[in-house]
Amino acid sequence: MVAQKRERKLPAERREEILAQAARIALSEGLERVTLRSVAEPLGVRPSLINHYFPSVDALIVSAFDSAMTRERARLFAGDGAPLDRLASFIARVENADGVALTRLWLNARNFARFNTQLALSLAYQESLDRQLLVDLLNSGVEAGEFACADTLAACIRIFVAIDGVGVYINNPSDFSHPVFTNYISDVTAWAVETDAVELRERVARAAATY
Amino acid sequence: MVAQKRERKLPAERREEILAQAARIALSEGLERVTLRSVAEPLGVRPSLINHYFPSVDALIVSAFDSAMTRERARLFAGDGAPLDRLASFIARVENADGVALTRLWLNARNFARFNTQLALSLAYQESLDRQLLVDLLNSGVEAGEFACADTLAACIRIFVAIDGVGVYINNPSDFSHPVFTNYISDVTAWAVETDAVELRERVARAAATY
DNA sequence: TGCGCTATTGACTTCGTAGTCAATAGCTTA
DNA sequence: TAAGCTATTGACTACGAAGTCAATAGCGCA
């Protein structure tokens, strides 16, 4: 709480800094914790400055969500190699410790969307981007002959619904370790892309071990 | 806003009335909308009366959630008949228009659990009750020879994760009508209990039509 | 070096929330 | 019909949030 000398930055830079901080809070503490104060304080500025760059907190929240999602998506789909291994890596990253914050944010945003139309629209758009990347991945797997899958969009939908289904339990006090639950994403994915469930489980485990 | 004569009720009755109102708000508007004022106003009482019966709003929210869940569960699992038809009815009710409010409440509670430990515990307990009822239903189906299912708890978990996975999209602005999505619960259920997917879809459709 | 532009602040208003507690008034009972 | 118990209220405090706007002060440029 030391009175510091005020630091003047270029608008673009300051704006970016605010956005990054808001995204950090959204990811770690939740969208409802993104407030003028919570964003301003760690940056050492006054709340009204946040207002200066973002006309309303709601707009900031939506931007923060977009920003966090874009960054996390890149992380999730990163890497190359054979399609089946990339798919396994993707699943492993989703289930990873780092994936927890992202899973929480998704759940958070999905509830938030009920009260904030703009966020609902942004969320739907972010979903479509995710689907696009997964469909691309599945298509390359089909082309490579690694799995037979008549309809890659259908498979993609099944996989994401499985991810979301498992994700809703993220805030449960004690986690649920039934093997059918812990392997749910792999199993549904194997079902969706018509490949062997046991092998996929193993590949996912191997991918997870490399972190 | 007419100044009415104050009405004095028996504590048990008043308490029940408050709880019912809170549950109604939780179901229709969300747990975050359960406030001293929002509950008091429609009952024609002052906010401090709510405080008199419930030491804290958080406690009221948890009780309201429990109450809403208990009532809705009874509705969801109601009915008799052959196990497979009861299973189909259950799915149809989940997907029903009336199921929407319940789905929203689940999503809502799952996000809320992040910030409210008591609610998290209550939610886990409510989940266990649901699982118990579905396992019972599945067991009776296996006994009746209607479907083969080695591990009914495993099947139950798969079915609920599917329900939750579909449920997270409840607040999306435009709904997603890909057949793989709209039939997701039926398809996963058929996969889980090793029965025919097409037949189950039809039974669910038939069950849905009877409302 | 000093001027001007504008990023940043401070002081403020308004709103909605939870909660406390003494005072009030409805109902029951004697 | 009067007394007493207690359900209910009113007035209050305290908090934290969004947002407005005139005043201030850093920085670039002349």
How is this structure best described in words?
The structure is a homodimer of 211-residue chains. Chain A contains eleven helices and no strands. In chain A, helix 4 packs antiparallel against helix 6, helix 4 runs parallel beside helix 7 and helix 7 crosses helix 8. The longest helix of chain A is centred in the middle third of the chain and has 27 residues. The relative contact order of chain A is 0.11. The model of chain A has no long low-confidence stretch (mean pLDDT 95). Chains A and B meet through helix 6, helix 7, helix 8, helix 9 and helix 10 of A and helix 6, helix 7, helix 8, helix 9 and helix 10 of B. Chain A binds a DNA duplex (30 and 30 nucleotides) through helix 3.
Brief overview:
Chain A is an all-alpha fold.
